Amino acid sequence: MQAKPTFHNSQHFQKYWNEGNGKELIVWAGKKPDIQNFKKYAHLYHEVDHLGDEAVKDTYLKLPYNEATAIVQKWTTNQISETDDAPESLKKMFLQMQHIPHWFDEDLANTGARFNMRTGTNAMIVLRDFSLMGGYDYAYLNKPLVFTGALKKGAVKRLKDTLEFWVHVTRENALKINSEAYQLIVRTRLMHSYARLTIKKKVPDWDYEKWGEPINWWDMIATYTGFSLVFMQGLKKLGIKISPEEEKGVFHLWKYVSYLLGIPEEYLPENVEQAVEQLYLWSSLQDEADEDSVQLAGALLEENLTNTIYKFQFQRKLLLRLHQSMNRFLLDPEINERLEIPKPRFVSAFPKLIIQANGLAQKYFDLKNPENYRKHVELGNKNQMKVLDDYIRHSPKDFHY
Q: Which residues belong to any copy of the ER-bound oxygenase mpaB/mpaB'/Rubber oxygenase catalytic domain (predicted)?
């Protein structure tokens, strides 16, 4: 089965890449991708993490949950060897993850990590209101979420899980084998495989031609491009300055995280030009937002009103208006309309305030001074950990494969 750039000439694709945020990305990359290169990556739409799938088959689909969890936990906290007594499939997956590729540069990844930390709560705004919400406009990408019951589980838990993953993998020296971040990556990788196998078994009408394999490699690359390319684009919109080395570090960090998640390293973008090409070509097979997309977007907005981090309803309503104003500022107008995101009063006030605050902060800290840069990183990290702690304390504690 061969994927095709079905929507390359569609209005939503052309509008995004010729007039909207996509045009901004092309300018940043300095080169417009060639649709003729689609064939280079098309096969990824129907390829998946077989190592993860086989590991799930031999643990969570074969053994009692507690027993499977104990086995997985043992080898996420201890290194495994060829001679250890463990399911062969699990051994293969962990041996792949334990192999540190020759291209990995921990110092460069730490440069990316420090950038992620220094952006503070700006990062949380962009991840939520630009990367995550903007991703809902890709109708086919969202199908696994719909079929695995993401709407029923609620946006609060999904936000907590996403934040927990993002925060832990973007700290300095976080990606050591058996670290807390490594354990979260293992859990995420196995959760992807479990969801994929469940869909393949329980969803007979899954449309492989349109949607590809559930949680396929190309969808995953596009998703993690949202944590690097789109993430930095959003931060630029909020006035965050990014040095060439920081930009390189962010891409390198996510290349390694993606490698640990089982995506073939030869397809992972290393720079803005490669990332824009991947997003451009992949988005040519994605339809615009549909009814499922609107429901997912609505659930994300509704989370502001149901989350108990803020005690009073007026606080939650204010937070909702603030996020809506950021959606309206960051996303293209037609994406806001397709996702049915309401336009609040004084829509530009909050974004302007953030941009001004970032300008003053960067001027005050003088980021070219190493000591000031470190202080900026420490403050940003503190603020991000506070947001994560709030979500952990106010989210359901019912994780289960």
A: 132-344
DSSP, collapsed to helix, strand or coil, labels residue 180 as helix
Asked whether the beta carbons of 124 and 391 are under 8 A apart, the reply is no
CB of 212 within 8 A of CB of 45? yes
Conformational region of residue 307, where left means phi above 0, alpha means psi within -120 to 50, and beta covers everything else: beta
What is the span of the domain harbouring residue 293?
11-47+100-393
Tell me whether residue 55 is in a domain. no
- Based on its alpha-carbon atoms, the radius of gyration of the chain, rounded to whole angstroms, reads 21
The number of domains in the chain is: 1
Count CB neighbours of 128 within 10 A: 20
Quote the pLDDT of residue 239: 97
Q: How confident is the model at residue 399 (pLDDT cuts 50, 70, 90)?
A: very low
Q: What region, left, alpha or beta, does residue 340 occupy, with left being phi > 0 and alpha being psi -120 to 50 degrees?
A: left
Write out 9-21 in H/E/C secondary structure: CCHHHHHHHHCCH
Is there a domain that residue 187 lies in?
yes
Residue 190 near residue 55, CB atoms below 8 Å: yes
Two structure tokens written together for 167: 């925060």
Within a domain: 66: no
Please choose, from the candidates 341, 309, 302, 348, the residue with its C-alpha nearest in 3D space to the C-alpha of residue 324. 341
> Could you give the C-alpha distances from 311 to 306, 362, 386, 394, in angstroms and in order?
10, 32, 17, 11
Q: Residue 309 contacts by C-beta under 8 Å, 6 or more apart in sequence?
A: 390, 391, 394
Instruction: Give domain status of residue 368, yes or no.
Output: yes
Taking residues 276-304, report their average pLDDT.
95
